[in-house]
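Convert to structure. Protein one:
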Amino acid sequence: MVDHVYADLSLAELYDSLNPWGPGDDFYLGLVREAGSVLDIGCGTGQLLRRARAEGHRGRLMGLDPAAAMLVQARGACPDVEWVLGDVRVRRWQAEFDLVVMTGHAFQQLVGDEEIRLCLRAARAALRDGGRFVFETRNPGARAWERWTPDRIHEITAADGTPVRVWHEVRGGGPRRGRVHFTETYAGPRWPAPRVRHSVLRFLDAGTLEGFLAEAGLAVAEQYGDWARGPLTPAAPEIITVARPA
C-alpha cells in the first residue's frame, strides 16, 4: 500500500521544507473546512489536518500513515488530531467519514492493480452516504518525469540550520508499464555521504483510473486538470478527482 518512503526520521524532518504549503493544499483545505469528519490516507507530517485544526475545525480529523517517523512530526506539531500508524490493509472504517482524501500524489505510490483496488475499496467503505473521496495523480500526458533531472537541485535548510541539497534522477529512461523508477538524493554536511531513496510511482490515465473507481463502487463527480479547477486536458499537469459512492 502507500509505503511512505520517509521512514528515516532525519529525512522526515525535512519533508515540510521540501514540500511547502501550496495551491494543492489550499484546494484540500477548502474541502476539509466543509466536512464534519475527515480521513487523510497517507497523511505524512499531517500539514493539512494540522492547519485545519489550527483554523478551528471542531470535527473528527484522522491522519493515517505507515511511516512512524512522519507521524512523530505530526503528533509533535498537533496532538489534537487522531494520528494512526498503518495503512488500509490493516486499518478499516465503515461509513465514518464525510471526506476521505489522499494528497501529495500519495495515490501514485500504489503501483500494483491490487494495491489500487484495495485502497479504493477501503476509501469507499469509509465514506458516509453522500461523502466524497478526493485525490490527485499526475497526468501522464504532462510527462512530469522528464523534469526530474539531477541538474534541478532544491536547496532547503534543516531544523539545525544546516543546508541540504536535494535532486531527483529517473532510472531506466522513463515509464515502464506506467511506472517510473527514480532516486531522490539528499546531500549536506549533516551526513558523511549523500542519502539516496529509491522510489516507484505509477502514472494512470483518466480512463484507466475511472475503471478502477467503478470497480470499487465509486463514480467520478468532478475532475480537474489543475488546482484552479481548470479542465482536464491531455497535457494538464494533474488529474484531480472528486469521487462519490456510485
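Protein two, convert as well:
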Amino acid sequence: MIVLIGSQKGGCGKSTTCVNIATELVRQKKDVILVDSDRQGTSVNWISDRNKQVKIPTIHCIQKFDNIRETLLDLNKRYEFVIVDTAGRDSRELRTGMTTADILLVPFRPSQPDLDTLPRLVEIMTEAKDINPKLKAVAMLTLAPTNPVINEIQEAQEYLKDFPQLFLMNTVVRDRKVYRDCMAEGKGVVEMDNLKAKNEIQCLVKELLTW
C-alpha cells in the first residue's frame, strides 16, 4: 500500500505525521519503507537521528525527487507499506506520487490559511484520479488546540463538508509538545511516554488502514 502524505502548505505537521505513521506500522511488525521526497529532508534527518540508536526498530528510508512514480511502483512490490513525505506545496513529487498512491493523506491545521489551500489541492487530486482512479483522498486535522473552549475544529469540520472529494478522518491530532520532542529524538510518539499522543497515532493508523 502506498500512502502519500501531501498538502499545499507547510507547517501542518506533514513530516511529523509521516514518521509517526511509519513508526506505528513498524511497531506492529509491518514491512515499511519511508520515502522522503521533500527537499527539506525533515524525514531523512529524523531517520539519521533514529539510526544512531540501538534499542528501537530500524525504519528503511530513501530519498527520491522529481518524478517518483516508477520508484513508488517498484517499492510497492517489495514492501507492505510505502509511506511518502512530499513538500508542502504543489510539486512534481506530489503530482507524480498521486498517480500511483492508494491513499492521499492531507494533514491540515484548523486555520483559514490552511483551509484556503484545499480547493486547489482537490483540483490536482481530481486530475490525478484520471490516471489513478483507485486514489482515495483523506483529510486529517493536525496541530489542533487542546483547549476545548476553542471551536476551530468544529469550524474546520463544517468547511470540509464543501469538499466531498476529501473524506475527513475522525482522528484529530492535537498540538502537543511531545510531537516536537519525538522529531528531535528520532522516535515516534508511540515509543515515548505521552499516552494521549500515542493513542492519537494508533487511532490514526487504525482508521487509515480501513480505507
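The two ends are 11 Å apart (CA to CA). The longest strand covers residues 136-144.
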